[in-house]
C-alpha cells in the first residue's frame, strides 16, 4: 500500500509540475505530442537521458540493465542506489563493478524485476514490451498473483486498464521495446 501511495504522490507531482514540452503542436497528432511530452518529462526528471549529440534516439531498443535503472529512478529509489554500490551481486552475470549493479539489485529486491532460473539476470538482453509493462505494473504495487489470466496477458491487460498504455498488439509482446515507448509507458 505504501508503494501505491508513493507512486500516486509522484504522479501527482509530475502532473502539477508544469513541465515544458518538446513539441508545440506543429501538425502533430495528440499521441505524438504525448510521446514527446513523456520523453521530455523523464529527461527533465533525470530518469532517462539523451545522447551527447543531443538526440534521444526514441527508436533504439533498451536493455534489461537500462530499464532496471529507469524503474529504480522512476519509483523514487535514487537515494538508495549508493547503499547497494558495494553489496554482493545476486546474479552470476552482474559484476559488482558494473554501472548497473545497484540498480539491478534495487529493482530485484523491490520485486520489480526478476532473474532467470539459471541464476543470471542477462543485463545486456533487450527487454520486451511484455516485460516492461510487467515491471511497471509490479512497481505500481500489483502482485503477480493478484492479476487474472496468464502472463503476459495478465499484466498487459492491467496496464491497459489503468492507462499505462492505450493499446498493445499481442503480436509485439515479445519484441524489443524502444526507448520512446519505454518513456511513454513509464511516464503514464
Count the strands? Answer: 0
The percentage of residues in β strands lies in under 5%
Number of helices: 7
- Please state the overall shape, judged from the principal axes of the Cα atoms: globular
Q: What order do the helices and strands follow?
A: HHHHHHH
The helix content is: 40-55%
**Which radius of gyration do the C-alpha atoms yield?**
16 Å
What is the mean predicted local confidence, pLDDT? Answer: 85
How far do the termini sit from each other? 19 Å
Largest sheet: none
- Unreliable stretches (pLDDT < 50, length at least 5) are 5-31
* Structural class designation: mainly alpha
Compact overview of the structure:
The chain is mainly alpha-helical and 188 residues long.
Describe this structure in words.
This protein has about 190 residues and is an all-alpha fold. About 45% of the residues lie in helices and about 0% in strands. It is built from 7 helices and no strands. α2 (about 30-45) packs across α7 (about 180-185), α3 (about 65-75) crosses α4 and α5 crosses α6 (about 155-160). The longest helix is centred in the first third of the chain and has 15 residues, at about 1-15. The protein is globular. Mean pLDDT is about 85; it is low at about 5-30.
Provide the fold topology.
Elements lengths: L1 H15 L13 H15 L19 H11 L26 H9 L19 H11 L13 H10 L16 H9 L1
Helix pairs in contact: 2-7, 3-4, 5-6
Which terms summarize this structure?
single chain; 43% helix; mainly alpha; globular; 188 residues
Amino acid at each position: 500500500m505504501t508503494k501505491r501511495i508513493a507512486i500516486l504522490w509522484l504522479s501527482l507531482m509530475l502532473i502539477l509540475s508544469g513541465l515544458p514540452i518538446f513539441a508545440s503542436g506543429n501538425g502533430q497528432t495528440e499521441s505524438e505530442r504525448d510521446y514527446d511530452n513523456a520523453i521530455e518529462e523523464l529527461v527533465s526528471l533525470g530518469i532517462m537521458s539523451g545522447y551527447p549529440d543531443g538526440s534521444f534516439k526514441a527508436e533504439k531498443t533498451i536493455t534489461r540493465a537500462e530499464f532496471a535503472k529507469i524503474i529504480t529512478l522512476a519509483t523514487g529509489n535514487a537515494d538508495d542506489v549508493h547503499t547497494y554500490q558495494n553489496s554482493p551481486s545476486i546474479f552470476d552475470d552482474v559484476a559488482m563493478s558494473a554501472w548497473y549493479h545497484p540498480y539491478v539489485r534495487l529493482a530485484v529486491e523491490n520485486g520489480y524485476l526478476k532473474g532467470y532460473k539459471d541464476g543470471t539476470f542477462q543485463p545486456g538482453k533487450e527487454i520486451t514490451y511484455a516485460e516492461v509493462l510487467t515491471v511497471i505494473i509490479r512497481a505500481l504495487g500489483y502482485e503477480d498473483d493478484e492479476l487474472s489470466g496468464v502472463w503476459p496477458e495478465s499484466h498487459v491487460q492491467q496496464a491497459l486498464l489503468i492507462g499505462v498504455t492505450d493499446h498493445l498488439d499481442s503480436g509485439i509482446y515479445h519484441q524489443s521495446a524502444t526507448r520512446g515507448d519505454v518513456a511513454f509507458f513509464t511516464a503514464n
